[in-house]
Design brief:
Layout (H helix, E strand, L loop, with lengths): L14 E3 L4 E3 L9 E2 L3 E7 L5 H9 L2 E7 L3 E6 L3 E2 L5 E5 L10 H4 L5 E5 L5 H10 L3 E3 L8 E5 L2 H7 L5 E6 L2 H5 L4 E2 L3 E3 L2 E2 L18 E7 L8 H16 L4 E5 L8 E7 L17 E4 L13 E4 L4 E2 L4 E2 H13 L14 E2 L7 H11 L53 E6 L4 E4 L3 E9 L4 E8 L4 E3 L5 E7 L3 E11 L4 E10 L1
Parallel strand pairs: 14-19, 16-17, 16-18, 18-20, 21-22, 25-31
Antiparallel strand pairs: 1-2, 3-7, 4-6, 4-8, 5-6, 9-11, 9-12, 10-11, 13-23, 14-15, 19-20, 24-26, 26-29, 27-28, 27-30, 30-31
Length: about 500
């Protein structure tokens, strides 16, 4: 499970929860009082760094780039600066291993999303990629400061040593193929967007019954879709999360009330620090629950009214609302390309098993409270934890398999194993307009289906299950083919190969 945007430790002040390890900041190392110019750091404070603290940082030439749970910020320094007189309890920089998604060690992808700190000039970022012996692939859907990169993984690890790099995660098959995707800049807080490299907040607090009731109010609408349809699609997205977790959504009456999501369509500057960028850019942003955000902003969903909104296609209201609702509940981005909470997503019909695992970790299964989390294993700032997620990141197959409506606590979680028999290598060449791929798949219960998808947008079902074959059409040039086997519980595994049609 690679739902890496979920909270694992409630009230974990004294720790910084990265995706690859947890840093114990309780007196672990002395706080450096001098910061070196043109470097990036994390500063953790004794309490949430409010506007006054952030203003003082700015006066000292320290730029806040992101929020880092808990009570920390990611910063850059334009000139040598000091921290004297500030309530800083820990300071340090990311190790190269902290910038590599744990999923990269489990299943090397064909391409990578490299995230640079927002103060890095794009020309400098491109130069660093080229200097590492890697290649930037053109993709107009990439967020500012993010690049689709291909090359040898050893060179990717070398690139992570650059101070300018913030995080590197697997690229989805959609990004690689150039298919239309929707991009999300991440969960927002009053101290900045949540950093890509961290595990994130703790969600809404439970009531006396152990459940969580979140209210919602529609504050404004788009003129591209009628209001009734928008309401129906957003509520449908809320209920998709509520099907699996101990959380309910109820229509409210006051948008500024506590624990209430205000759904707002707006264009350009609209009263928060994150103005929209017009059609074709960031579609929406959502503020995290309280804390770290204060009311009435906590949980609010803002959608760009200038986008060409639709129902069931293109910029789809349901798909965007489903993703943003995950942020409103406290989830961050997943590194798993198969998840709704992956930062680049397409039309959605429901949640993946990765999303379900994340929301149930935060709120428990429907009707059951979340398990009491254990104290995080602390590691030193220079040593990554040996604990890694159990499954590799996976490229998506369209259409996605739907998870069971209410997975039991003892549900099958073992994915099928599969093997490609023919072609005999992961890169093959042909003059033909199609190729027949053959293989086997096995499961502890039963394999129910085998599907294929290609980088040119084609997809279909293979013939057979335990022994299967698929005839796949090819375009001239490189064709990436992903084969995925499913069992009855929705578990899946995949294999990929590249076919060069000459």
């Amino acid at each position: 499970m690679l739902c890496l945007g979920l909270a694992q430790i409630a009230g974990a002040q004294g720790f910084i929860r990265l995706k690859g390890r947890t840093i114990d900041t309780r007196g672990h190392a002395p706080v450096r009082t001098r910061l070196v110019a043109h470097h990036h750091y994390i500063l953790q404070f004794g309490s949430f760094p409010g506007a006054e603290v952030r203003g003082e940082l700015a006066r000292r030439g320290i730029q806040v780039l992101s929020y880092v749970p808990d009570d920390a910020v990611g910063i850059s320094v334009s000139a040598d600066a000091d921290l004297n007189g500030l309530d800083v309890i820990w300071s340090g920089s990311l190790a190269p291993a902290d910038k590599l998604s744990p999923g990269l060690e489990l299943a090397t992808p064909l391409a990578y999303v490299v995230v640079f700190y927002p103060d890095v000039v794009p020309a400098v970022a491109r130069m660093l990629v080229r200097s590492a012996g890697l290649y930037v692939q053109p993709n107009v859907r990439m967020l500012p400061g993010q690049f689709l990169v291909t090359g040898d993984y050893s060179r990717v690890k070398k690139l992570a040593e650059a101070d300018e790099v913030s995080y590197i995660l697997p690229a989805s098959a959609d990004l690689i193929s150039g298919a239309p995707v929707m991009a999300c800049a991440g969960a927002m807080t009053e101290a900045g967007p949540v950093a890509d490299y961290v595990l994130e907040g703790d969600g809404w607090p439970a009531d006396s019954s152990g459940g969580v009731d979140v209210k919602y109010v529609f504050s404004s609408f788009t003129n591209k879709v009628d209001a009734t349809s928008v309401e129906s699609e957003v509520v449908r997205a809320f209920q998709e999360w509520a099907k699996y977790a101990n959380v309910t959504f109820t229509a409210g009456t006051v948008a500024s009330a506590s624990q209430t999501i205000s759904i707002l369509f707006a264009a350009g500057p609209h009263g928060d620090p994150y103005p929209f960028d017009g059609p074709g850019g960031v579609l929406a942003h959502t503020f995290y629950p309280a804390p770290p955000n204060s009311e009435p902003t906590a949980g609010d969903m803002h959608l760009d009214a200038s986008e060409n909104w639709h129902i069931g296609k293109d910029v789809d209201v349901f798909s965007v609302a489903l993703h943003e609702a995950g942020h409103a509940l406290g989830l961050g981005h997943s590194d798993n390309p198969n998840a709704v909470m992956y930062p680049y997503y397409r039309l959605s019909t429901g949640l993946s098993s990765d999303d379900i695992a994340g929301i149930q970790k935060l709120y428990g299964s429907r009707g059951e409270p979340p398990a009491t989390p254990a104290q995080p294993p602390a590691t030193s700032p220079s040593q990554p934890s040996s604990q890694q997620p159990a499954q590799p990141s996976e490229p998506p197959v369209q259409p996605p398999a739907q998870p069971p409506s209410q997975p039991p606590s003892d549900a099958d979680t073992t994915p099928p194993s599969m093997r490609i028999v023919s072609p005999g290598s992961t890169i093959a060449a042909t003059l033909a307009s199609s190729i027949t791929i053959r293989g086997t798949a096995m499961d502890n219960v039963a394999v129910t289906s085998v599907n294929w998808t290609t980088s040119n947008g084609k997809s279909g079902a293979a013939s057979g299950t335990s022994s299967w074959s698929a005839t796949v059409p090819l375009l001239v040039g490189n064709n990436m083919v992903v084969i995925r086997a499913y069992d009855g519980a929705g578990n899946s595994s995949w294999r990929s190969l590249t076919i060069v049609r000459r």
